[in-house]
ATP-binding protein
Amino acid sequence: MTETSDIRKIHIAFDGQDTPPLKIHQLFDPKKYDQLIGITGEITADFINKYLSKFISVNIALSSESTNRLSADEMITKVALTNALLSSANKEAAKIFSALTSDNQTNVLNSLFRISIAPTQVIHSKFYLLSNSITHDTRVILGSVDLTDASFDAQRNQFEEVLVFDNNIRLYQNLADHFKKDLKPVLRPFFTTNLVKAAQKQIEESKKDQANNKQESTGPVILDNETTDKIAETDMVDLIKHDVQHDIDHELIPDMITKSMRNVTMDRSQTKEKIAKQVKQHDTIYTLQKEAVSPRAAKPKLKTREKITKQVQDALISGMSPQQRDAEKKYTTFLYDRPMERNIANNNSGLYVPNDTGTHPIPFGKIATISEIRDGLKSIDAVMKGYQQFVVDYDANYGKRFFEAILYSFTAPFLWEIRAKSSLNPEDGNDVPNFLVLGATAGSGKSTLLRIINQLTWNSDRSLIDFGTIYPSQTPQKKTKTVEVMEHYMKLGSSYPVLMDEIEPYFFQQDQYSRHLVVDIMNELVNHPQPIAPLIGTTNYDSGFTMLRETARRTYYLQIDKVIDESQKGAANQYIYNVRKTLNNTLFKDFVMRMANLLEDDETPWRDFNSTTGRLDFLAMTRQLFKNYYEMANMPLPDYFSETICDDFKESSRNRWAKLYLTQQDDFQYRQGDKSLLFDISKLNTFNGFTADSIEKYRNALPIELCVDGINGKRGKFVEIKAPEFFRWIGEHNPYEETETDSTENEQENNVIEEKPKKKGFWARLFG
């Protein structure tokens, strides 16, 4: 058995040859080299004082810790800038400077010793370049070590690599040029101008006292808390206002980084939850370690395997209540999208499902015959004819909503790939929503449509999850836990949509729920493309559906507000029952093969914008595939086939405010000077016949661009609306246009009248 002492934790190799353990001063040899340039993850004052004091020149940049799955803008805002601001707030530079010897403090003040940071760039490099200005000897040190004693501690139980190359001129020059040309422009002093001025001021005052009291020498600079507080405050302001602006002006970072800075807290709730979960997990693991050892033995030893197995089992379920475990079991539909495994030539769509016994994944998808395609289209048509026959006031435009939901469900497993291919900028990803909401009145057939979608894609109608029964009604914090489970379902790795029935309206209307799930998940998808399952859900329309603006932008909303004829309900139920017995997912299996082919083709045009609305049609390729289906089946394109996405939330919002204006005109007060309408939104209360949540419904439904002073115009008791734009939006005549025109004409007439009584001069009277 190998003894622990025989294992080399610090592995040093000179030019590829293993070397016996070396002391730090032998690696960073101040006798052989007098200059040091490098990048390190960490540096301590103690290391500088002990090993770098005798170098004539030291220039060190501080790198950042490893980051995981962050976008370019997040690397700036959430890593580089955040670390720089935290460093200033925690006074790290002042602490290191105060701990330096007085000689090394002088070296810093004379710019002989320089430490730098990159406030808007993430540096993950690590290397050290030593040179001699007289002999021109060079040394390159590569590896994992930092400039700390701990990095070189063989008893630390951490492996470190140190690769040394002496007098390798090409390697040295390459890295030296890289430091000078690439890194130096983005670096800023770690010991800032504010810190240097404070230190110099203290030294000058010390010299005065020295002269007056005839002291032999001045001591080291030790900055008090009041001084370092002021330094931290000023440094943080300089970082944001000066350093960020400098890097924008010099095109080192994009000028739109300010937008990313403004949105840096968008998904903060999700990050907090991850941190809290990690803390809980660590506590569980610490407890597991503790309990795996016999507590009373004089010489602690591990317990038996059986006891440890029981403790591990208990630990794995300790964080879940019985209700949580039951909720997790409700989701059973798995469809995995693996583009790297896609092989169209071998009929592999890249989608996989578990086999019947759940032991391993098998490919999903199969090209259908023309006859099977025709049968699939006829099944969908039979569904649509059911709505056409039994829904009151049905028309082709209304039918498009049902067909759009089917198209979305077919596309759902690939939405994350389409989002990545159609986005030029990260924020464009919000145009490919991961949420489809069917807003419907009771008796409209919305739940039936959800089951039909399940059958057409999964060949089953049992994958639906009832929102209200995920947890029992008396569960503490039921709303929060329900949203957490929804997120859990979406992040199980499957790309098959989560089918959620009867989502309660509070989820969309209250910020802490919809922002947490819809906004945060979309931000995660935009910045880190990955197969997070889409959510297709129904919700009660009732007196009107509304959701927060941020939620609405990231959601595809289809309004199904017409009911099935009550007098024909029995016939309708029988009809749809007969139709559903014929449904299968053969067409969907063919569809995924054809969509996979489009995704593999670099020429596929994913950025299809509607000329009227200007919105991205993220279902454009799906529409094209279905057009091909109808052509192959020699069937006409049905009237419920939509040529572009619907915009029902915007339409329902417009309709809501149009009705409000037409029925409450006297409550809209016109301000002629601002050409605006003032409306007291507090009147939308139960006393006046509105529902308890009407104020927020109407506030959410009003577009910000119609409000005077933007978002401020829709806050508070009085909503102020731009009159001309508002009347164009609701499609009603602006009665104040005539008044303004008449006023202008009257003013012109008055001016003419006023000019008549002017007295004529002598020559005018004489000659007319």
Notes: Confidence is low (pLDDT under 50) at residues 752-768. The longest strand covers residues 160-166. The radius of gyration is 35 Å. The chain is about 45% helix and 10% strand.
